[in-house]
């Protein structure tokens, strides 16, 4: 297709990266069967690369990833794209700094989703990565813009890169698809640890100034420069 | 055996498929030791292919799968068939649209089984796959038709492809053995997430109209056509 | 050593089998680090084969298994035997039908151990394998016969092949080491499922006559003849 | 670098050992993504070897481990060291018998951390390895000596080789890095088993004299001499 001629190499690389990142979802048991996916924005183009719908993780290849435009229409690929494509396309349209989106139904985040309760920030790891509580998004049904809108509305008023959609599951964003996967992994880890702690009593809170200091340090000092 | 001459290729393929699907049971930790099995109907024949009894998952091969008629009698194979063969044969006799049956004692479904309590439909994934709550079947003891009858009676009055038999475990059905395995995997996933959520409070319900819309969409739009 | 001349082949085979069975303990996450072991009786001799003490599971080989007499003294092997050797030797002395013993600190059984509470028989799998509740043995400290005596006293008055020693962990027995491992695996599975169920309410009991029928069938009909 | 000329072989060996020990953290699921690390003292030198910051476990190699002095300054290596280097350097400075330090955010220990509650010694394995309860350290924020000081202050008044820092995670020490990893593994195992037990009732305590006897035996008799 001529529209893709000038980004062929970028798309080839993103197909490979998006495909490989799904291994992190299975490794950390964030997904079962075919229920969860990763997508990436094609930088500088109104395009995204996403998992095909209903295909098992073992059967994913760079070639069966699907390229869509930001209205969710297939531009390149033999398969139907993930049924979450519309929601993720909405996020890319509305949040230009987002380079990757991940969707999971991970267990402990799902438990908070069912009660519609945000995960309080009572672990240093939560302050580091989420800068506060992990918020709950509205109940929204698949098929129009309401999931996408719920994600964007919630994350626009939070420092958190992950939102737990009510009765549904997690959407995580990042400047890169890899960072979005990291947010999805840590969302489940924090949701699990806080859940388990609360089974036997109330958490000791962390003061807001410490949350702020931890978030600032993790965003600006942690890792390799 | 002459009875099998005209379905030799079909049976060879089903032996391979049924054997391979057991890997999904161990991967998702739905079974321990030898406690769980998959079977497939031989389409157009009153026959099924099932796991041998008490054989470890590592030792399963296409060759040691057992072919039985729908009264549970061995037609081809060196091994005794699963002790659940009678129950599964009953399902194939009574439910002609069923192409595969799976039995597990998966942990969280087992927890609901012990209390004899259905899993309420409070997750979109549950609405998608089960179209409502995951029902409880009666207590039934092995050795006659009572398990098979309990499965059929329960699933005939439900949209769910899985039933949790009281004090026992899960039986899941599908138009194909692979779809039955998917139902068993998601049954445990939903049972786990809802259980964990309820440890800390009551679920927010999903309105019936949303359950219906999600079920309809998942059955008719999701996946590859 | 001359005492071993006539059983050299048997011991070689048992070293291999005992070593390999430890893979089942790690696969089912019944043990961490070096905390758990399998032993086998050398049939017709007052000897047993057991794991060396404090050696990591990855480093086990048939050659570093240790042969001891039934007083727990090393007869063949370069390593110190498991610190549970005395307890297991006691079991082999007092229970001539036992061919294998397994010790674990598996998590959910350990949770019942801490409360000193037997696991009630509310799952068909528990009736099948244990013929009733999984009993609690006394608190006993390592270093003399008290652990061995606690195991034998408890299992002599039960149909169960596994005992949960108070504040400690599981000892499982079987006519073969493989059957003892199966009992240890199912002990944890049953302890886990019943624990989880009770978090949200009381179990529905299984009538004694059903427990008896299930136990009888599993011992006499299940598996390959 | 001339300062390292006489310890080149030692450091090469420690890079390999420290790198390899991280596999134990992932195997026992004590860490997710990049959140946890192992370090080793270079015996006889004011140096330590530690994981690079923010590098995935799959990407660790002996070569990308970082050598620092005991003020936490990089002495050899291309990468920025773990953000926990300052805390661990403090431990090596103040506790000369420590040869290895491990940091994790393991789940169940984290649950106790959030409530700021020590893990009571109600399992023989806890008496063996920790000689009593697993203590809680103070809340301390990263960036100065306060984490290191909290670790040292807590462990100096305890027989335990592991401390659970409030709202944060585990630091474990040992005479060797391998023993520190063992302590981190057993800390999570004990924290998990005791947590689960307490969900359904109160633990039966172990008498202090038995705790002392078990600790003494495990330190002096267990394993290979």
UniProtKB/TrEMBL annotation, chains A, B, C, D:
It is an enzyme of class 5 (isomerase). Its EC number is 5.1.3.4. Residues 16-195 form the Class II aldolase/adducin N-terminal domain. Its cofactor is Zn(2+). InterPro entries: Aldolase_class_II_sugar_metab, Aldolase_II/adducin_N, Aldolase_II/adducin_N_sf. The keyword Zinc applies. Keywords: Metal-binding, Zinc. It catalyses: L-ribulose 5-phosphate = D-xylulose 5-phosphate. This is L-ribulose-5-phosphate 4-epimerase.
């Amino acid at each position: 297709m001529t529209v893709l001629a000038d980004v062929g190499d970028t798309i080839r690389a993103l197909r490979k990266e998006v495909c490989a990142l799904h291994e992190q979802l299975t490794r950390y048991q964030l997904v079962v069967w075919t229920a969860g996916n990763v997508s990436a924005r094609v930088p500088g183009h109104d395009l995204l690369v996403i998992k095909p719908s209903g295909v098992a993780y073992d059967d994913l290849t760079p070639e069966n990833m699907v390229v869509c435009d930001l209205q969710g229409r297939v531009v390149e690929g033999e398969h139907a794209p993930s049924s979450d494509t519309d929601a993720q396309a909405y996020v890319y349209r509305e949040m230009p700094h987002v380079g990757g989106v991940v969707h999971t139904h991970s267990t402990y985040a799902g438990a908070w989703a069912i009660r519609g309760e945000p995960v309080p920030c009572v672990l240093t790891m939560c302050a580091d990565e989420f800068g506060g509580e992990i918020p709950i998004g509205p109940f929204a049904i698949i098929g129009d813009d309401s999931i996408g809108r719920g994600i964007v509305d919630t994350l626009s008023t939070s420092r958190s890169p992950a939102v737990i959609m009510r009765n549904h599951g997690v959407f995580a964003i990042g400047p890169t698809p890899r960072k979005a996967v990291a947010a999805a992994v840590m969302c489940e880890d924090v949701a699990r640890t806080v859940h388990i702690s609360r089974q036997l009593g109330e958490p000791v809170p962390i003061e807001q100034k410490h949350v702020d200091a931890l978030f600032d340090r993790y965003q600006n000092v942690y890792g390799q420069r």
